[in-house]
């Protein structure tokens, strides 16, 4: 028998397909279906014995074991079963089969500020949230000052949290969570909140937790965070464990898989969220002559072309794009809004976005794009283009800086006299 | 080292008393939250818990006492009806709120584990504070009318416990049902209104022929309200209704507990 602090054995969770439609959502439906097929109805209410054919397995045959002090990252695409796994580990939902053995006090953080009540003050919420997260009153009281100091909101302690800025809210919420002392900590994507400085502080605190020998399970889309924190990663795909090993290797095969997925970015893309009104139908990269290219070059112009189909006569749209590097870190954001423009569209056609001088070092990238109307996403494709950038002569010197230390290429110049450097900045020769 | 096993469970599930005890502080905090939140940003604050039954008392006294001249067993109608409104207001408010409690706490249910039973229980706990305040007001009303409570008042704590059990029984059942069937959102307010008229809040149970008393007492509040009056005002006790209602209350409470537990594991999936 395995001696891990957390042992998952043959875990599976199934949902009935079309659960929402088929299940009686109103009492009238229940009565109606009872009238139609009383026996069948009773049988179904009794247990969820789900026939194999209409069951959807969000998680299937998942087994792994975690040793005390290990920090394990769970990665995978949306719908791979990460959240379901976390929910079972946190006892929010029950598995359909298999079991989990936990040897130690568990705390799970699926969101920051769980149970925060907007009408209550910061002070009151520290107690409420701490208690919901499993701290005793004595424990909260003894850590109260540390929590307040960590959150940097001393002045607003007696203000209802509904008056807090979102940054303050998150800081307070995370401060409470950061002072939990579980033996096993289960964390979801919570690192993706707050300002950059505070994120760093939280990452630091997380690292501290890990170094103290606590067992941590983290789910995240942020590959840099996963790589920074976890020595081991588990890759899930369609509810199954496909790889379990050292983080760098697992992250690499995940990204490779993402690339393959991009060829079908427009058809049957589970990551796509589309309202069906205006839809992207194609995406290409072009060079400065307007010819399609597959590998953009550092320092060269790059044009993105997007084809669309407009089904409901929408007149104007906003477009937002985010470019991610191979670690899943957002490198840059592109938006029609910052240019104060909206794109006027026809029933079908294309629009373009040009980058005069591609400031990216060699590497693999992913582009996410969202079409918006009135700030609402009407088509969102997180992996519309996945591409590799080739080495180019960005600095016109034939040389490149060490790409290991570069996320982006930034134009710069060196001088030894202040007048010269100031002049080169003001006359635009830089 | 403590070991916990998570595995699928089937059918009726036991109540995990040890766990409830372990989490007892959370019940305190949830109750405390419900009390704090209830009257935040209201101008009158806690006064509402006093005003509600007092308003009802005035309205009922005018309509049923003065106009309809309903018998109040020789007591001033206001005093008589308020004794019924005490347990009734507590019951109907707490049942309505706890019926909605799981749906309202959906965000919490899908993000963290804690004994789900605490969600409706904390609502009922918070209601007890209002009940206590209403009792104080009743003391004032009794003093104004120059009525001294009977010796039966020593049974009051037991009757409050019985009221709480009945409230929890209804609350657990309706909370679990409302998660699956949102119809109960609409049904519960209507149910409470109908129940008030079949409970002897505004009239004495003696208005109904005696052979039907047991039938009325299938509604737990029938026996409880009658007993409240007997305890405080010294009206004759009605053993039939009290015994039947007590039995129904106990059955309902146990059923509510287990029904809730049985449905509980699906809350996060369907909430």
Describe the protein in words.
- The complex is a heterodimer of chains A (430) and B (271).
- With 430 residues, chain A is α+β, with helices and mostly antiparallel strands.
- Helices cover 27% and strands 31% of the residues of chain A.
- Chain A contains eleven helices and 19 strands.
- In chain A, the strands form four sheets. A six-stranded mixed beta sheet of chain A has the order 5-6-7-3-8-9, with helices on both faces. In chain A, strands 10, 14, 15, 16, 18 and 19 form a six-stranded antiparallel beta sheet that branches. In chain A, strands 12-11-13-17 form a four-stranded antiparallel beta sheet, with no helix packed on it.
- Chain A is globular.
- Chain B has one domain.
- Chain B is 70% helix and 1% strand.
- In chain B, α2 crosses α6 (118-145), α4 runs antiparallel to α6 and α4 runs parallel beside α7 (156-180).
- The mean pLDDT of chain B is 91.
- The interface between A and B is large, with 50 and 41 residues.
- Give the CATH class of the largest domain in chain A: Alpha Beta
Question: Based on DSSP secondary structure assignment, what is the total number of beta strands of chain B?
Answer: 1
Query: Based on CA inertia axes, which overall geometry of chain A fits?
Result: globular
CATH-derived topology of the largest domain in chain A: Rossmann fold
Overall pLDDT score of chain A: 82
